[in-house]
């Protein structure tokens, strides 16, 4: 039966280490980016977007930002995906 199942999305959330966090602006509001959402695409590649909180405080809008094209982010994303794969493979089913 597992061959008949269609999984449409695999996504993980990864906390951005303090040293890699940055601030970006969208719609006139500054955000400190603290989380990556990493998706496994159907062809096996990874895609990532960054999310965060408004610098001024409050909830703010749920707005995505591109992840900087830097080796340290590529490493963070690849390591997180590998770790998630290990955790998924070791699942113990529903309790």
Describe this structure in words.
With 95 residues, this protein is α+β, with helices and mostly antiparallel strands. Helix content is 20%, strand content 36%. Strands 1, 2, 3, 4 and 5 form a 5-stranded antiparallel sheet that branches. β3 (29-40) and β4 form a beta hairpin. The longest helix is centred in the C-terminal third of the chain and has 19 residues, at 71-89. The protein is elongated, with a radius of gyration of 16 Å.
Beta-strand level of the residues, as a percent range? 35-45%
Identify the quaternary structure here. Answer: single chain
Class inferred from helices and paired strands? alpha+beta
Sheet with most strands: 5 strands, antiparallel
Mean pLDDT: 92
- Rounded to the nearest angstrom, the distance between the terminal CA atoms is 21 Å
How many whole angstroms does the radius of gyration measure?
16 Å
The helix/strand series, from N terminus to C terminus, equals EEEEEH
What would you call the shape? elongated
- Which residues form runs of ≥5 with pLDDT under 50? none
Number of helices: 1
Helix fraction, binned, reads 10-25%
Number of strands: 5
